[in-house]
Design brief:
The complex is a heterodimer.
Chain A (H helix, E strand, L loop, with lengths): L2 H10 L4 H31 L1 H35 L2 H8 L6 H14 L2 E6 L4 E5 L7 H8 L4 E6 L3 E12 L2 E14 L13 H9 L3 E4 L12 E7 L5 E8 L3 H36 L4 H21 L29 H24 L7 H4 L2 H31 L15 H33 L8 H16 L11 H23 L7 H39 L2 H15 L3 H9 L2 H14 L1 H5 L2 E7 L5 E7 L5 H9 L6 E9 L2 E13 L5 E12 L28 E6 L2 E5 L12 H7 L6 E8 L2 E9 L6 E8 L3 H32 L8 H55 L12 H11 L4 E4 L2 E5 L2 H5 L9 H9 L5 E7 L2 E11 L5 E8 L4 H53 L13 H63 L5 H29 L8 E3 L1 H10 L7 E7 L6 E3 L1 H18 L4 E10 L2 E7 L7 H6 L15 H11 L3 E7 L3 E9 L3
Parallel strand pairs in A: 25-27
Antiparallel strand pairs in A: 1-2, 1-5, 3-4, 4-5, 6-8, 7-8, 9-10, 9-13, 11-12, 12-13, 14-15, 14-18, 16-17, 17-18, 19-20, 19-23, 21-22, 22-23, 24-26, 27-28, 28-30, 29-30
Helix pairs in contact in A: 2-8, 3-7, 5-27, 8-9, 9-10, 10-13, 12-13, 12-14, 12-16, 13-15, 13-16, 13-23, 14-15, 16-23, 23-28, 24-25, 24-28, 28-29, 29-30, 31-32, 32-34
Chain B lengths: L2 H19 L11 H4 L7 H13 L2 H5 L2 E9 L4 E5 H13 L1 E3 L6 E5 L2 E12 L2 E14 L2 E9 L1
Parallel strand pairs in B: 1-7
Antiparallel strand pairs in B: 1-2, 3-5, 4-5, 5-6, 6-7
The chains are: A alpha+beta, B alpha+beta.
């Protein structure tokens, strides 16, 4: 027993039972206490709520104030550090000095601290900057130039920023001002990768669990709403900069959050209790003799624990994100067993453990034997075989259904080629599927083995025809498996493959068992998992393909969905936004800046913004004067907007206008709503104009950066699909370039479309040399308008990447398995010993992988650099094209750029260059092909500081900068526009921000390619290394085995390696020579010992015989003398003498009998013997003694052994007697029997005095005895008996600790 | 204390805790389908179920009308197309942290046999009151209407 088991055994043994109860009681008591504490706490809170709420509110308020102060302190520190830098002072002291170094410094500081920095001269002139420009603070700068440190907060359209103005001092003189800004709040409810809503208020609201509001307006005051507590925020100059308000804690919410903490404690206690209970039960179950009962008990325990966890919603109730988020996967199977990826993993782990435990029980207890009673029932056996086959395919169906659910009930991207390394959620799901596959294989192998045994009648594995019969049965079952089902989930070829695999694996394991090798080994597990990968991937792939189809079909339904209802909803909801309390209070307060922002605010919160529609949001007062307007791509709808303003209705109204231009239809929805307050009449009017074109399928066209949580777009689907529309078989519009202009539907498609009963179908066709899968759907059954969604077929590279991913998945699972295996070994107290082969393989892999990793890293870096270089080249060309066009317009007059470019000119330039662009004059944006981002203040209108420094100051003809917005990094190319006098008239820039998806896709595919190639190389390396390691280590391994055989006493051993050369060959030859010599020497020794033994025995026999002969001679002499002397009591003397002689003859007879038995006279009679029965008979002779206790753990239905029953009985009697004598006829004697791999083992353990090493060494020598009586032949005879049966006997003993005798006998064949 | 007594007490404690822990949070807020009144149109019952389901955080009432694929858009939570099974659990998670007041659809419309409904509803989230707009779109599948889109913005 290893140390862990012994520890548990001590805890849960009879003596440790009180410990267990104490722990359980303690944990239960804690649970009760926790419950009581929660109850009492709730009561306390109820009774003292005001006090508690006040205290909590005060704490929250302090935290909110402190959070702002911390930010302010940090910004001040940055400002001071910048102001004191020598470079800043140097540049401000000398205006003619080159400012590029200053720009570099400021840019570095700003990036490090995530702030914006501006440097002003003493004349308040801006000389250097990094970050956004709005809003400007001339007044505050003037104050700072007066020598005062100033801090203030300003709210713009999108951001609320904290500013700190720090004067730059040098020798008592102010050289300038450093203005540092940091965003403290985001007013724009946009939350995507580009603009992340992580303002201070939002963050604190999340952390504290109550609403926090920062108000930095000039007239900010404490909240008069009784639900809030407020505190003033003080600036660096001790002036008030704003007010923070924190919502009072809601009692229920507070109790809920505290309850959550108690819940976590309770969970821990529950887990302790459950863990303890499971351990106790598990140990009890392990002692159950019956394999069947043990298996059932283990199964019940495992699933009881699993369902208890589900019932208590553990761990999902605590960990609600990541793998426990149902957004990734959720199935209603098992009432919660698979309601997330994490729960599914736990369930498959439970299934895996269940299968492993039950499988191990079965294997260890004679898995290839069938009950004897079945041998007589031929029909029953065949019915059971048929049932097994049916059960197997039902299991396969269940398995396929699970994989289908794993695909269809999840949003995981199994087949995204750009993703080689899976996300944690995907890896967990794949691991679950691997475990599930393993369980299926294990159960199926067990069933197949059972079926084989049933057909064979008993464990005769040499009969190959049985396998063919079984194959036939499975083939029939496979074919029948799909007949009655409309969707069998797996195809017939796969079912046949499954059946063949089951047979193959079972056959392989049977062969292993025959060879005496253990079938439960790491190698078997690894091979099984490798098979699982090959097995489950095609099923997964087929389902993913089906899901791709479903997705396209669902999208198609959206496309043909009447846009009217949706767009009306969007417009209606946008109009409702104008009626919010916030809008009304802003209009009522009359703050011009706030009113000016209203249109933007309403747009930002509307569905129109989320969906990315081109729209105009506006507010007018009751006389029609425009108070606020915000527009995105709405230039085309201006006419509608003006019409709207002409005729403002008294109630909410919506007007739809459709404009058909060629093949494109544009729908414009416009509406107005009066904003009324009580009896004051109309406060203002809200107006919305929304436009959607058929070419974009009535979906939003705004860039994704302007969308909050952009929805899944078909364009970003990893299998790009092109959406096209056909009228009367003619292509009218398409979102991609897959279909050529004027494309006509193929005749086969037209024929199917003419079927009025069929609305949609899939078709495979070749379009321009590319094979495509296309889904056709009619807008209605009688309509001639058809929408088609086409996906190019999956190419070879796709499948290659797919195979690489399977390898990666397998590697991840193997890694987990190896780690798990090592952990289990460690828990059991076994130290895993790495063999020579393992070390050699490790060395080869390290040698090969190290440079591979270096190359892969370098290769990836090189590829990224190349991509950047290509991007730079492309940007250089694009900026050159644009610059040339604009410079041509300049016609040598530099001032002409000052005029604003018209919208048409901008669009024309952008179209000609094929890219979006911006134009700067000085350092301000003058024109942009994408003004929305600047209007929305997502991007700043000021030229980047470093770009200014490099182009304007440094004179570079092209400058590439990597800029960051949110979590996204993108490249921007800058090129100066040179006028006729070789002066810089402006800067044109081309950002890649608008091509986020393209660039990401390019990077992903590049990474996928690199990774794929290296993964293939890695796989090849592993296979080659493993092959070489096996080949090199094989002779060493065989040598090791041969050495072990020699140590066990096998004399004639050869290593069995042919053709080995070098040192290993020399070693092998030397070894074989040594063993030969050893065998010769041992034979001689044996002969000598035998002679010696016989001499010794002859001496002993002579001595023993002489003992009775002497008294016999003396007695006869006495009798003769008495007869001659004619003694009167001759009769008496005769009687005595004759008695003596008879006794001595009996003694002689006994001696002869002992020696005869030792010399094997008479010949033994070999029959089929039930070992357990013989053991019971032997025990019966001793169990009358009340001081003796026998504990029998005899295996069920042991296979018979071939032996002389009487001799075997004597063997057991002898050993039992020795044990009883060693215990002085008092104590416990344990007898345990079981069968394993063709052998029967019997273990007899006593609590006697034990024996020393010296005694153990001589134990089986004839004539050796530690007792005063007896011949000392008992154990010698025992050993000889066992040896003659082909078995072995092993004795383990320690002085004072008893003796264990293990007898191993081969089962009858 | 004897071992037997300890065991009995432990079992009692566990039993009591189980009782306490098994409280069902979704007991409803006294709003029943009957109290809202039933609609007479063929998809009216579905809209009634949606109203009651959202008002009482009873996802089952919604889920039984889901199409095999449903577009779900939830403010501050999941957005995407989910299977009906997945949508069930996504909504369960959403409703766990939000308490909705009574929802009543203000607009019920239909266009080419694709009905939809919208309405506003207030809810409590982290102690703060907020307002959301609910949009539900239905489609005919086979012989019955199913929910293809549910948005709570």
């Amino acid at each position: 027993m290893n140390r862990v088991q012994s520890r548990f055994a001590t805890s849960f043994s009879l003596k440790g039972r009180s410990h267990t109860t104490r722990i359980v009681f303690f944990a239960s008591a804690l649970l009760v206490l926790s419950f009581l504490a929660e109850f009492m706490f709730a009561r306390y809170v109820e009774n003292n709520w005001e006090k508690v709420a006040e205290q909590r509110s005060r704490d929250h308020l302090q935290q909110a104030v402190r959070a702002f102060s911390d930010v302010q302190r940090e910004v001040r520190r940055v400002g001071t550090e910048t102001a004191q830098h020598p470079t800043v002072r140097a540049v401000l002291s000398d205006p003619s000095r080159d400012r590029r170094e200053l720009f570099e410094l400021v840019s570095r500081f700003a990036s490090e601290h995530d702030v914006g920095i501006e440097v002003y001269t003493a004349q308040a002139r801006l000389v250097c900057w990094h970050g956004s420009s709005e809003p400007s603070h001339q007044r505050e700068i003037e104050v700072a130039l007066g020598g005062k440190l100033v801090s203030f907060v300003t709210r713009s359209q999108v951001f609320t920023q904290l500013f700190v103005a720090t004067p730059v001092w040098s020798r008592g003189k102010i050289l300038g001002v450093v203005l540092v800004r940091r965003t403290v709040d985001l007013n724009y409810p946009l939350n995507n990768r580009v603009v992340m809503n992580t303002g201070l208020a939002e963050q604190l609201t999340r952390d504290l669990g109550v609403q926090v509001v920062y108000d930095f307006s000039p007239d900010a005051s404490a909240s008069k709403d009784g639900r809030y507590s407020s505190a003033e925020l003080i600036g660096i100059d001790s002036s008030k900069v704003g007010v923070v308000s924190v919502a009072h804690l809601a009692r229920n919410a507070y109790l809920e959050s505290v309850g959550g903490s108690f819940h976590i404690l309770n969970v821990i206690l529950w887990l302790v209790l459950i863990g303890f209970a499971c351990t106790v039960l598990g140990i009890r179950i392990a002692t159950i003799r019956s394999v069947l009962v043990r298996g059932v008990a283990a199964t019940v325990l495992i699933w009881f624990v699993r369902f208890v966890l589900v019932w208590f919603d553990l761990p999902s109730s605590i960990l609600q994100t990541g793998v426990f988020d149902p957004g990734f996967f959720a199935s209603t199977f098992g009432n919660g067993l698979a309601k997330s990826v994490g729960e599914m993993f736990l369930t498959t782990c439970a299934l895996f453990v269940n299968t492993a435990i039950v499988g191990r029980f079965v294997v260890e207890n004679g898995w290839r034997t069938s009950p004897r009673w079945l041998k007589r029932h031929f029909v029953v056996r065949w019915l059971l075989v048929a049932a097994v086959a049916v059960l197997m395919f039902l299991l396969l169906r269940g398995y396929a259904a699970t994989i289908r659910s794993a695909v269809f009930d999840s949003t995981l991207q199994y087949n995204d080629p750009a993703m080689i390394l899976p996300s944690f959620e995907l890896a967990t799901m794949v691991a679950s599927l691997f475990l599930l596959s393993f369980c299926l294989v294990a159960v199926v192998v067990g069933l197949t083995s059972s079926a084989f045994t049933l057909l064979a009648g008993c464990a005769t594995h040499g009969n190959r025809s049985i396998w063919f019969v079984l194959a036939g049965v499975y083939a029939v079952a496979a074919m029948l498996g799909g007949i009655e089902l409309a969707s069998p989930l797996v195809s017939l070829p796969f079912r046949l493959f499954f059946a063949a695999s089951a047979l193959g694996i079972t056959y392989y394991l049977h062969r292993q068992a025959i060879r005496g090798e253990s079938i439960i080994s790491l190698q078997t597990l690894l091979l099984t998992f490798a098979f699982c990968a090959v097995f489950f991937y095609p099923v997964l792939d087929a389902n993913v393909h089906d899901r791709d189809h479903n997705r396209i079909e669902a999208y198609a339904q959206q496309v043909i969905r009447p846009a009217d209802s949706w767009l009306k909803f969007v417009l209606d909801e946008a109009l409702q936004e104008f009626l919010s309390n916030e809008t009304i209070s802003t209009l009522a307060n009359g703050d011009a800046n706030a009113v000016d922002r209203l249109a933007f605010d309403r747009w930002a919160r509307s569905t129109a913004a989320r969906e990315g529609y081109s729209c105009i949001f506006a507010l007018t007062d009751s006389s029609g004067y425009e108070l606020s307007r915000f527009m995105i791509g709405g230039e085309a709808s201006m006419e509608m907007y003006h019409n709207l303003l002409q005729d403002v209705p008294k109630r909410k109204s919506i007007v739809v206008h459709e404009n058909v231009t060629g093949v494109n239809t544009i729908r414009v929805y416009s509406g107005s709503i009066p904003i009324v307050t009580g009896g004051d009449g109309v406060l203002a009017y809200g107006h919305v104009v929304l436009a959607a074109s058929q070419q974009s399928l009535f979906r939003g066209e705004s860039p994704s950066v302007l969308r909050s949580q952009p929805q899944e777009l078909l364009e970003t689907f990893h299998r790009p699909a092109v959406v096209s529309e056909f009228h009367d078989g003619q292509l009218v519009t398409s979102t991609g370039s897959l279909l050529p202009i004027g494309y006509q539907l193929p005749a086969t498609v037209k024929a199917r479309l003419s079927d009025s009963t069929q609305r949609s179908f899939w078709s495979e066709e070749r379009i321009d040399g590319t094979v495509c899968e296309t889904f056709y759907i009619k807008r209605s059954l009688t309509n001639n308008q058809v929408v088609a969604l086409s996906m190019p077929e999956l190419g070879l590279s796709w499948h290659l990447v797919g195979m690489v991913k399977v390898v990666v998945y397998y590697a991840i699972v193997v890694l987990m398995l190896v780690i798990g295996f090592l952990v289990v070994q460690w828990v059991r107290g076994h130290r895993y010993e790495f063999t020579f082969r393992d070390k050699l393989l490790g060395a080869l892999l390290v040698t090969a992988l190290a440079p591979l990793i270096v190359m892969a890293t370098y290769g990836r870096q090189y590829a990224n650099d190349r991509l950047l270089e290509e991007t730079a080249n492309r940007l250089e060309q694009e900026t050159a094209t644009l610059a040339a066009s604009i410079e041509q317009r300049l016609q040598g007059e530099e001032g002409i750029v000052q005029e604003a470019l018209s919208r048409d000119e901008i669009d024309r330039l952008a179209t000609e260059a094929g890219t979006d662009f911006n134009l700067y004059v000085g350092n301000q944006l003058q024109a942009s092909s994408r003004p929305e981002l600047y209007d929305a203040e997502v991007l700043d209108k000021r030229l980047s500081g470093l770009a200014f420094a490099n182009t304007v100051l440094g004179g570079k003809r092209f400058y590439l900068e990597t800029e960051t917005i949110g979590s996204y990094r993108y490249a921007v190319g800058y090129r100066p526009l040179v006028s006729g006098r070789d002066r810089i008239a402006g800067i044109v820039s081309v950002p890649t921000l608008y091509r986020i998806e393209e660039v990401e896709e390019e990077i992903s595919l590049q990474n996928a390619l690199i990774f794929g190639v290296y993964a293939v190389v890695l796989l090849a390396i592993v296979i080659i290394a493993a092959t070489f390691a096996n080949r090199i280590a094989a002779p060493i391994h065989k040598l090791t085995l041969a050495t072990k055989r020699v140590a066990r006493g096998d004399q004639h051993v050869t290593v069995g390696v042919k053709g080995a050369d070098g040192e290993i060959g020399e070693l092998i030859r030397s070894f074989e020579a040594m063993t030969e010599e050893l065998a010769r020497g041992r034979d001689e020794l044996v002969r000598f010992e035998r002679e010696l033994a016989w001499k010794e025995m002859a001496k002993q026999v002579a001595h023993e015989i002489k003992n009775p002969l002497t008294p016999m001679k003396l007695s006869i002499q006495h009798l003769r003398q008495t007869y001659l002397d004619r003694v009167p009591n001759f009769g008496q003397v005769f009687d005595d003498v004759s008695r003596t002689i008879i006794e001595q003859i009996d003694a002689l007879s006994r001696i002869a009998g002992e020696f005869a038995r030792f010399a094997r006279m008479p010949k033994p009679t070999l029959v089929s013997v039930d070992v357990n029965a013989v053991l019971r008979e032997a025990v019966l002779l001793f169990d009358k003694d009340p001081n003796l206790r026998f504990e029998l753990q005899l295996g069920d239905e042991l296979p018979p052994v071939r032996s002389d029953r009487e001799e075997l009985r004597r063997v057991f009697i002898n050993i039992i007697r020795n044990g009883v004598q060693a215990m002085n006829n008092s104590g416990l004697l344990q007898i345990h029997s079981w069968s394993d791999l063709g052998r029967t083992l019997v273990v007899l353990k006593d609590e006697g005095t034990g024996m020393s090493e010296e005694v153990k060494r001589k134990l089986f020598q004839p004539n050796f005895s530690t007792k005063t009586d007896g011949m000392g032949l008992g154990l010698a005879i025992t050993k000889k008996t066992i040896d003659d049966l082909g078995g072995s006997i092993v004795v383990e003993s320690e002085v004072g600790k008893g003796t264990t005798v293990t007898i191993i006998l081969p089962n009858e064949q | 204390m004897k071992i037997r007594s300890r065991i009995v007490l432990s079992l009692l404690a566990v039993f009591a805790h189980v009782l306490a822990a098994s409280g069902n949070p979704a007991l409803g807020q006294g709003i029943t389908r009957d109290s809202l009144g039933g609609s007479k149109s063929e998809y009216g019952a579905i809209l009634d179920d949606v109203e009651v389901g959202i008002s009482t955080s009873n996802v089952g009432l919604l889920a039984k009308h889901f199409a095999p694929q449903v577009g779900i858009n939830l403010r501050g939570d999941e957005n995407g197309t989910f299977s009906s099974n997945q949508a069930y659990y996504v909504l369960m998670k959403f409703f766990r942290t939000r308490k909705f007041a009574r929802l009543q659809f203000s607009t019920v419309g239909a266009s080419d046999s694709n009905p939809y409904a919208t309405g506003g509803v207030e809810f409590m989230y982290k102690g703060a009151k907020a307002r959301a707009q609910v949009y539900v779109a239905l489609m005919i599948e086979g012989r019955k209407h199913v929910i293809t889109q549910l948005s709570i913005y």
